[in-house]
Amino acid sequence: xxxxxxxxxxxxxxxxxxxxxxxxxxxxxxxxxxxxxxxxxxxxxxxxxxxxxxxxxxxxxxxxxxxxxxxxxxxxxxxxxxxxxxxxxxxxxxxxxxxxxxxxxxxxxxxxxxxxxxxxxxxxxxxxxxxxxxxxxxxxxxxxxxxxxxxxxxxxxxxxxxxxxxxxxxxxxxxxxxxxxxxxxxxxxxxxxxxxxxxxxxxxxxxxxxxxxxxxxxxxxxxxxxxxxxxxxxxxxxxxxxxxx
Amino acid sequence: xxxxxxxxxxxxxxxxxxxxxxxxxxxxxxxxxxxxxxxxxxxxxxxxxxxxxxxxxxxxxxxxxxxxxxxxxxxxxxxxxxxxxxxxxxxxxxxxxxxxxxxxxxxxxxxxxxxxxxxxxxxxxxxxxxxxxxxxxxxxxxxxxxxxxxxxxxxxxxxxxxxxxxxxxxxxxxxxxxxxxxxxxxxxxxxxxxxxxxxxxxxxxxxxxxxxxxxxxxxxxxxxxxxxxxxxxxxxxxxxxxxxx
Lengths: 245, 245
What we know:
Two copies of one chain form a homodimer. By secondary structure, chain A is α+β, with helices and mostly antiparallel strands. Helices cover 20% and strands 31% of the residues of chain A. Chain A folds into two domains: 2-95, Alpha-Beta Plaits, CATH 3.30.70.580; 107-244, 2-Layer Sandwich (Alpha-Beta Plaits), CATH 3.30.70. In chain A, strands 1, 2, 3, 4, 5, 6, 7, 8, 9 and 10 form a ten-stranded mixed sheet that branches. The longest helix of chain A is centred in the first third of the chain and has 13 residues, at 27-39.
């Protein structure tokens, strides 16, 4: 058996997320179907991070085992021929048997895009969160620093999560503003369900003056989802890059 | 009767272009339906430039006459409430009776976006033209200058055009490169059917080394569509701005 790694970009707009689910189209299922067409093997594709419905990826990473003799770097061509146009393998290669897209990852980078303008913009509607009240980006930057470190992130965990520990390490939260676009770039070792989206929703409420800029340490300490802000919508989120040793 | 001007952004992906046509959804028809819902009047909306199927607009301009007493600047809110999410009025106002979105325009700016990378990118597939062979942008810039001026642009006119004169004035053709993205920005007094897309297709063939960089004057002089390059696909084109006195 050979272990193949794929780096994948997708537009999540028309999918119910990464994970295969009955009745709903998923990214995982589309790629597994493409692998089946290429190799006649039913594989189980494992991703670095399962993205939710309508979340996008610039650099999702997944791996699978195969007995096929297609060279590792050729899987890109072969699978892209079979995939729908909103999913494309950016690169493929054969890796060591011990590699696991999820457990071998050292950290991940997510990007969340906010459009902070008055009138909705059709061209970016599926790739940003439209926030109409004027955000104070300096206040958001000040608050963002308080996420950096190792904390119990229970307050920033989506409901219906069954993960045992909610302790996570956030390495950086950078906020870049260009005109009416605000990007929040978060790096961390791993993330809880909806964690980035709740962090962003909370930072937006700080930027709008609805919460104090120094309230993040208090919010973390409560270990209570009700104490954090709203969950920013899925279409603004991008899994940008997964890092390995 | 009052004359109302609208500035409109739209994602043209799911439309058969600006103009209302039997059986196919059009931008014009969607906006006329929204105006009908708001005013109970069947109006005829006139646009500055009719965009083709899958072409986008950042600043399309259109006007219509109404007896409604909705204040000019309120049409934006009223129509956006009725419009599908891929069309949004960016601003609205009442103007003089003599204003005509098409004939009052002094010039227009189009933007054409090329993605010059190896692997298809799902996130920009509906908003760019994917060209895989490496383009020489300096050669394209050199060639682009030869479009500037007043010429008979018959070689750059799409078939099935019934316009009498094909003499047009091009004011500027700027090419901006940022990583793998190349934007070609064209300003002119008015444009023939498919003119920008044929100009772009020809520039791409020059950038790919398939045509000499100094061939544009010859191509214009032939006054023959067969002598110009291919028509670049619709999804890379944006009507960016319409200018008025």
